[in-house]
């Protein structure tokens, strides 16, 4: 294998470049990125970047002086793929042919098409939102998932009057289960943010600028700013000419990693590229850790690791939910399946380590 | 100048001790019985590396999974980009002594100096 093309220049793309070099690949590497920026760290975009504690420079993921010997083709979008010849078609009309292709095109924020509704996924999104947050007023956040909750927390810190609306009866139920989702979502109320659940958004009003968000029960929430955090869509449309992601990766020499696979976890985008690259090079894959993600809301560190499934039991093994400092262990068939910590990083790390040594089903 | 910090017996192998000097220092006792001292604060964001995941001669930050080599302070996995300082360690009569580095520390954005 002499040449590898990596399509996607965010965390997973960068991790794939590093993994190739670490696994002794000495050939040519071309990285294609739709955004004009070198790889940067997305998690702070909804947190310290919005409040100004973290700058654009701080977000860079590449080290000063780090030479990975890769050809970075930034601001260029892949538009098509031919798996037989491993040819990546670009919006510039150029075609890149390689012996190996790593698909790492990530995902984009699910949009709400209305004037003045922000979403948050990219650095440019975050710069626009940070600018809009410079005044204060009434913010409505649509979606009480992690992004929505973090934006609410950051805006509250900046002095905004914040309302979060969620169509599901319990926020974060899919990620944390209903019991823990309910406890974690109490953080909003603790900090003077209204949380309205079980209420789908039925309309947005305002012509020149956003004026209000309307809910299924007839509630009208006046708003100066609206942010939608309603999920992500994998960037895989460019693979349609190849029959889709699954068909593309069924061809030897083509692998996929990161958020375009449907995962939404930062640590997956960090760690899985080494496995994908090992498959490409025919080397031994590294040991994988259980999924881990975190969120930072209202100064509370929320950490979760493992696989939660409906029917798991949850028990508090340390601390007190009322104090928003505790450790909860999820169990299935008497075995720990996942662990949740609020403001318990040390204990959480211990449990996370134990999860790895416990057998994990596929 | 070597300063006495704590008896080695207070740090079981595989564990760490956070020495609350300014800035704080984390002292690790590896499973192999070696002792290392590095700055306790992750260079990416305010987190205590003494609370992290120690594996061999590497510690993973308990928050965001940045990894640091205890021997060199080098960062081995993002999001951190800058190394932590390492400090010279001597164990004398069962007591851990540390000589603080004279290099400037790489503290994260927003951390108290």
UniProtKB/TrEMBL annotation, chain A:
Domain FAD/NAD(P)-binding: 3-270
Gene3D superfamilies linked to this entry: 3.30.390.30, FAD/NAD(P)-binding domain (3.50.50.60)
Domain Reductase C-terminal: 292-356
Top-level taxon of origin: Bacteria
GO cellular component: a single term: cytoplasm
GO molecular function, one term: oxidoreductase activity, acting on NAD(P)H
Keywords per UniProt: FAD, Flavoprotein, Oxidoreductase
Alphabetized InterPro entries for the sequence: FAD-oxidoreductase/Apoptosis (IPR050446), FAD/NAD-bd_sf (IPR036188), FAD/NAD-binding_dom (IPR023753), FAD/NAD-linked_Rdtase_dimer_sf (IPR016156), Reductase_C (IPR028202)
Cofactor(s) the protein requires to work: FAD
Pfam families for the chain: Pyr_redox_2 (PF07992), Reductase_C (PF14759)
Stated name of the protein: NAD/ferredoxin-dependent reductase-like protein
Source species: Actinoplanes xinjiangensis
Automatic annotation (TrEMBL), chain B:
NCBIfam families: PRK09965.1
CDD domains: Rieske_RO_ferredoxin
Organism of origin: Actinoplanes xinjiangensis
Protein known as: 3-phenylpropionate/trans-cinnamate dioxygenase ferredoxin subunit
Keywords: 2Fe-2S, Dioxygenase, Iron, Iron-sulfur, Metal-binding, Oxidoreductase
Domain of life: Bacteria
GO MF annotations in UniProt: 2 iron, 2 sulfur cluster binding; dioxygenase activity; metal ion binding; monooxygenase activity; oxidoreductase activity, acting on paired donors, with incorporation or reduction of molecular oxygen
SUPFAM superfamilies: ISP domain
Domain Rieske: start-end pairs: 3-98
């Amino acid at each position: 294998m002499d040449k590898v093309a990596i399509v996607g220049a965010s965390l997973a793309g960068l991790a794939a470049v590093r993994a190739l070099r670490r696994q002794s690949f000495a050939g040519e590497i071309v990285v294609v990125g739709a955004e004009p920026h070198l790889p940067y760290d997305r998690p702070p975009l909804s947190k310290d970047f919005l409040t100004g504690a973290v700058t654009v420079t701080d977000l860079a993921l590449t080290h000063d002086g780090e030479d990975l010997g890769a050809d970075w083709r930034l601001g260029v979008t892949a538009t098509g793929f031919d798996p037989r010849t491993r040819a990546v078609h670009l919006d510039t009309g150029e075609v890149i042919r390689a012996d190996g292709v790593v698909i790492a095109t990530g995902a984009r924020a699910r949009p709400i098409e209305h004037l003045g509704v922000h979403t948050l996924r990219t650095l440019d999104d975050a710069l626009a939102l940070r600018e809009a947050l410079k005044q204060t007023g009434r913010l409505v956040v649509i979606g009480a998932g992690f992004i929505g909750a973090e934006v609410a927390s950051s805006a509250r810190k900046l002095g905004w009057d914040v309302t979060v609306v969620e169509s599901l009866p319990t926020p974060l139920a899919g990620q944390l289960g209903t019991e823990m989702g309910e406890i974690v979502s109490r953080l909003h109320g603790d900090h003077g943010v209204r949380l309205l659940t079980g209420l789908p958004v039925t309309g947005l009003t305002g012509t020149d600028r956003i004026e209000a968000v309307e809910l299924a029960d007839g509630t009208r929430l006046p708003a100066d700013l609206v942010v939608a955090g309603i999920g992500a869509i994998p960037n895989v449309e460019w693979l349609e000419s190849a029959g889709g992601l699954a068909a593309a990766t069924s061809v030897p020499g083509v692998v996929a990693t990161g958020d375009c696979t449907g995962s939404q976890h930062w640590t997956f985008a960090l760690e899985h590229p080494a496995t994908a690259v090992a498959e490409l090079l025919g080397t031994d894959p590294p040991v994988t850790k259980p999924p881990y993600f975190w969120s930072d809301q209202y100064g509370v560190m929320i950490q979760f690791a493992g696989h939660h499934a409906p029917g798991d039991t949850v028990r508090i093994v340390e601390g007190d939910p009322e104090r928003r400092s505790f450790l909860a262990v999820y169990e299935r068939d008497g075995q720990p399946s996942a662990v949740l910590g609020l403001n318990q990083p040390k204990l959480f790390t211990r449990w996370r380590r134990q999860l790895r040594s416990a057998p994990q089903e596929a | 100048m070597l300063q006495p910090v704590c008896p080695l017996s207070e740090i079981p192998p595989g564990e760490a001790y956070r020495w609350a000097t300014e800035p704080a220092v984390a002292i690790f006792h590896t499973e192999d019985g070696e002792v290392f001292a590095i700055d306790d604060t992750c260079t990416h964001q305010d987190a205590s590396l003494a609370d992290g995941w120690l594996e061999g001669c590497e510690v993973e930050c308990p928050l965001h999974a940045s990894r640091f080599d205890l021997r060199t302070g080098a960062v081995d996995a993002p999001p951190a980009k800058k190394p932590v300082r390492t400090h010279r360690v001597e164990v004398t009569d069962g007591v851990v002594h540390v000589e603080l580095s004279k290099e400037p520390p790489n503290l994260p954005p927003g951390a108290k100096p």
